[in-house]
Design brief:
The chain is α/β, with parallel strands linked by helices. It contains 22 helices and twelve strands. It has a four-stranded antiparallel beta sheet. A two-stranded parallel ribbon has the order 1-2. The radius of gyration is 32 Å and the shape is elongated. The protein binds one RNA strand through helix 4, strand 7, strand 8, helix 6 and strand 12.
RNA sequence: GGCCCCGUCGUCUAGAGGCCUAGGACACAGGCCUUUCACGCCUGCAACACGGGUUCGAAUCCCGUCGGGGUCACCA
């Protein structure tokens, strides 16, 4: 039985790199019919764990990465919060002490610091001298009498080699002599991460520890703890991390400002900001950050697309296939096709993957996705009301591939704006309707449209073509002013779709308004 | 600095000794389609970090160099 786990710290957000790790863990478990466990590493956390955890759980849920055991769903190994498992860790520390694999140490920070600097001067790996190691209770008492407080350290081997067979990196060797006597328990009795992690992995019966590469050098100490406690070793798989756009550095949410200097990333952000502003977020910059998954949910990306893109960051199936549904990923995923080199996050590629998934989405689904945006932007009061629903479906159908994320519907706000409130782009109006000739032509076209029968996109197209022919002008000369009058913009849906969706009455009203002297201030 | 990992087009990657004058995708450039914008289609640009070996033959194996990254906490 395969059991994997994802162990986030409750930090208040779900990082893209973190999701990628979670995704691979989840995919591997699902692929093998195993279980995916969510464990919360809040060893060091104070209050507000619930609040800091919410975005993480929500993000995973949005992406469809479901967990079999963990917060909210419980499970046979509960609790799944490290902060609630302290007694188990203490028992493990006692056991380590009893077996002689750990010791109480009374060195002060200054004494340690001095040794460390000495090692650095001599250009060798720092290894603690164990000068303040208490071998007996009497020694411990003596140190304590000096006013020292003790921590528990691992009594690491000082010779030999550890060989790890990593499922993605292959054989990796470490010399035990280079490893530190890490502290596993503080003087106040609280335990540290590595100890906790190993104990939990054992108690949760984790078979495969799949995590980011930055943990590779932590592995020896964890192996030591596990072996000392007599635990069977899990299989390890260290994933390459997700790098910044255009660099090999690890992606970090703190460097947003730096990424914003990168053109593609800035565009991704700007596109999202525009949508968020339109739906009335007053402080979008504080909320929005494409390094975190909330961004994609808020702006209207498809979870399947995000998953697909993330899967491609470090994993590939072949040279000919990049598009996968969640189910296909589960079926096809394997760790031996995971790459070793870090992969940088590419906003452009992500958008391309999103576009492809969006193209495959049935119109009814798109209409559903898009509705909340119209509602929040106060363009549609009730999307389920039949006439509103019909209008939404028409616009979505006509928009076709122009709708790349759900929030893009706001590009077509003019279909949901009352005729008399339609905003005009002055530059466009000047260019298309600035001249008396253009205005006169449009006035004539208006009358032709008033008579065009039936009032459908196909018939309208014929009418407009015929009109241009009769007037002896090029199609463009009539089409551009008409678009400007109808939408106030120079770009948009197909003109005849626009006409048809608006309906005759509304179209004529808009033309009249555009033609009337600019009284609106 | 020690230890560990990594190194194919700008980016994601295919490639497990001859199928490679290195393939695909995204991006980019040009063109076609077209009422705008998208979409779509076509064409083009563009990479095996470097140096030594091994071999009849190396992107693929070995060694070295260089470069990049991770990690060295009483954080997780």
């Amino acid at each position: 039985m395969v059991r994997t786990r994802f162990a986030p710290s409750p930090t208040g957000y779900l990082h893209i790199g973190g999701v990628r790790t979670a995704l691979f863990c989840w995919l591997f478990a699902r692929k093998h019919g195993g279980q995916f466990i969510l464990r919360i590493d809040d060893t060091d956390q104070q209050r507000n764990v619930d609040e800091a955890l919410r975005p993480i759980l929500e993000g995973l849920r949005w992406l469809g990465i479901d967990w079999d055991e963990g917060p909210e769903v419980g499970g046979p190994h509960a609790p799944y919060f490290q902060s609630q498992r302290a007694d188990r860790y203490r028992q493990a520390v006692d056991e380590l002490l009893r077996r002689g694999c750990a010791y109480r140490d009374y060195a002060t920070a200054e004494e340690l610091q001095e040794e460390r600097q000495q090692a650095e001067r001599e250009k060798r790996t720092f290894v603690y001298s164990r000068r303040f190691m208490a071998r007996t209770p009497e020694e411990a008492a003596r140190f304590e009498a000096q006013g020292r407080s003790g921590v528990v350290r691992l009594l690491m081997p000082r010779e030999g080699t550890l060989v790890i067979d990593d499922l993605v990196r292959g054989r990796v060797e470490f010399a035990w002599a280079d490893e530190q006597d890490h502290v596993i328990q503080r003087a106040d009795g609280s335990c540290l991460y590595h100890l906790a992690s190993v104990v939990d992995d054992y108690q949760f019966e984790i078979t495969h520890v799949i995590r980011a590469e930055e943990h590779l050098s932590n592995t020896p100490r964890q192996v030591f703890i596990a072996q000392s406690l007599g635990y069977p070793l899990p299989q390890y798989a260290h994933l390459p991390f997700v790098a910044e756009p255009g660099s090999r550095n690890k992606l970090s949410k703190r460097k947003l400002d730096k990424y914003l200097k990168q053109k593609d990333f800035a565009e991704l952000m700007e596109h999202g900001l525009k949508i968020l502003r339109a739906v009335g977020f007053d402080r979008p910059k504080e909320i929005l950050n494409p390094v975190m998954v909330d961004f994609y949910e808020l702006v209207g990306y498809l979870p399947e697309a995000i998953i697909n893109y993330l899967a491609l960051l470090g994993w590939s199936l072949s040279d000919s296939r990049e598009e996968f549904t969640r189910a296909e990923l589960i079926e096809l995923f394997s760790l031996d096709r995971v790459n070793k080199a870090p992969a940088s996050f590419d906003p452009k590629k992500l958008r391309a993957v999103q576009e492809r998934h969006m193209q495959r989405l049935p119109a009814a689904k798109k209409a559903e996705m898009v509705s909340p945006y119209l509602q929040r932007a106060r363009l549609v009061a009730d999307p389920s009301e039949p006439s509103a629903r019909a209008r939404i479906e028409q616009v979505v159908a006509a928009a076709g591939d122009r709708l790349k994320v759900a929030g893009d519907i706001l590009e077509f706000a003019d279909f949901f704006t009352p005729d008399e409130q339609l905003p005009y782009d002055p530059a466009v109006m000047g260019k298309s309707l600035g001249s008396p000739e253009a205005r006169a032509l449009l006035a004539k076209l208006r009358d032709a449209l008033a008579l065009c029968e039936p009032y459908s996109a196909e018939a309208l197209e014929k009418c407009v073509h015929q009109f241009a022919a009769e007037q002896g002008v090029k199609l463009g000369q009539v089409v551009h002013p008409l678009r400007a009058a109808l939408t106030g913009k120079s770009v948009g849906l197909g003109l005849f779709d626009t006409l048809a969706i608006l309906g005759r009455a509304s179209a004529l009203r808009r033309i009249d308004r555009a033609l009337s002297p600019p009284t609106n201030a």
